[in-house]
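G.,

No rush on this.
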Amino acid sequence: RVNDVYDIVWQRQERPAAADSERRPGRWLIFSDCGGIGASLAAALQQRGDTYTLAFSSDGAPTLGAGDVQVDPSHPEDFRAALDPSGQSAWSGIVYLWGAGDDGVELDVRQVGATQERSIGGLLHLAQALAHTPTPLLIATCGAQAVEPFAPTQPVHAPLWACLLYTSDAA
């Protein structure tokens, strides 16, 4: 049995002290979920003086705000267009939240396929668009692994962890 050999144990880590005096404002591209995590992150970034662009999936995007973009997860060119800073400074980082924000939602078989196409297919197209740039890519999932024993999981996003391992090995 696998559980007799391997066990995932999360260990709490203290955050390192931030050197705010040396930090310059950044510019972030957030591939936002529809559950509010991306909006909360954007607000926190704005509070510390950073700017951001929210990129929503076209298969369920809310009403777009000023500066927000809509990306079709099945069109690689949409990812390349979202990454193009159009004369602005380069991105400080990209946060990929299309594997977060729907924690605890029951999905039927059709929804699982659409969710994986959006989250995994989208990450594939994003990684391809980023292939020749040094921009940091941060990937977040919600519920893909249990943080506490017997906690409910959302395994539909677990394959993103394999993509994360591959992209970090390729870097």
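When you get to it, here's the other one too:
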Amino acid sequence: DPGCVYNYPGFGLTASDIVFDCHGAFINGSGRQGFSGITGFAVRNITVRNCRIENYRFTTVGLEYGIRMEDVEDIAILNNTLINNTGGVIINGTGDGSISNRNVSIAFNFMEDIGRGSDFGGSSISLKANYSSVMNNTLRSCHNCWNVEVDGARNLIQGNYVFSRIQSDPF
């Protein structure tokens, strides 16, 4: 329901073959520390779409992302709004540094005020995957961070609108 607000430390996607459609609902981190809005580990065939994820902020525990996934395959991150998070979307590898993620699509998302208040920054989009794409996203006001960071082979980065990377942030 678009009118719903979830003041929750985050949602964990623990099963494969699902569509997580927020239908415009708001997932609010409320500045909570140590959590990301939506996480998925070792899952396959997942779609996350139509979510509004805000206020997942940096702590000493680590970087909080709107959406964080690791060791995944066939993932679609579509039409989400991520605002005021330390990082936007991260698709990370396994702990041994190898790239195990494949077929990830990050498209038609809006991200704003990523990295604000953090000396370490983060990334609007951090993709460590092969055979994946980052397309048609709008990335605005990335504070002390990378807008798009990619590691892997045979990835397509196309049609993203990037503006206002801010080097220093007094807040």
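The longest strand covers residues 44-49. The chain has a mean pLDDT of 85.

Enjoy the weekend,
O.
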